[in-house]
Amino acid sequence: MSLISLQLQPLTAKHIPQVLALDQLCFGGLWSKDGYLREMESPNSTLLILPAPHDQNKLIGLGCLWSIVEEAHITIMAVHPDLQRRGLGQLILLGLLRDAWRRGLERATLEVRASNHGAIALYEKFGFQVAGRRKGYYQATGEDALIMWRKGLDHPEFASQLQTWETAVGDRLQSHFLR
């Protein structure tokens, strides 16, 4: 048995149609083509995609962060609904946190729907803590967003924490994606 190759990579223009399809499926069309193109061009953005292992033209995951002063603001995390709860979100979040660490950022933040218990558990697994609430943040539903923070990205032990997570994520993916 071998592990299916799952490789995060930067978004390129050739994947824009696939990223728009994934965005529509996961968020109902949160960002436009122009929005993604702007993010690709910005030196302060990291936009990672996760192509399907046997079809590089189909995307199964997406993540984005903005580097703002000493902070990584995670703006998007998406996994194809048919493939959730298999470790792919962990892989994407790990990739974003690794990028934040490489950039020398000190902390990471994000907003998440208060009802999205799976995502909240994922973020907590990576050391995020609830720091506040944005009332009525999601306009379509009026739902609140939880503000979550992860400090200490600039501490020396964070590099070894990344390595520990990488091993755990690899083990999780192997258990779900062996063929």
Would you mind describing this structure in some detail?
The chain is an alpha+beta fold. It has one domain (9-174): Aminopeptidase (3-Layer(aba) Sandwich), CATH 3.40.630. It has helices at residues 16-27, 33-41, 88-102, 117-125, 157-177, and strands spanning 9-10, 45-52, 55-68, 71-79, 107-113, 129-138, 143-151. The mean pLDDT is 91.
Helix content: 25-40%
Helix count, DSSP H or I runs of 4 or more residues: 5
| Biggest sheet details | 7 strands, mixed
Order of helices and strands: EHHEEEHEHEEH
Please describe the topology of this protein.
Elements: E1 9-10, H1 16-27, H2 33-41, E2 45-52, E3 55-68, E4 71-79, H3 88-102, E5 107-113, H4 117-125, E6 129-138, E7 143-151, H5 157-177
Parallel strand pairs: 4-5
Antiparallel strand pairs: 1-2, 2-3, 3-4, 5-7, 6-7
Give me some keywords for this one:
about 180 residues; 7-stranded mixed sheet; 5 helices; globular
Can you describe this structure in just a few lines?
This protein has 179 residues and is α+β, with helices and mostly antiparallel strands. It has 5 helices and 7 strands.
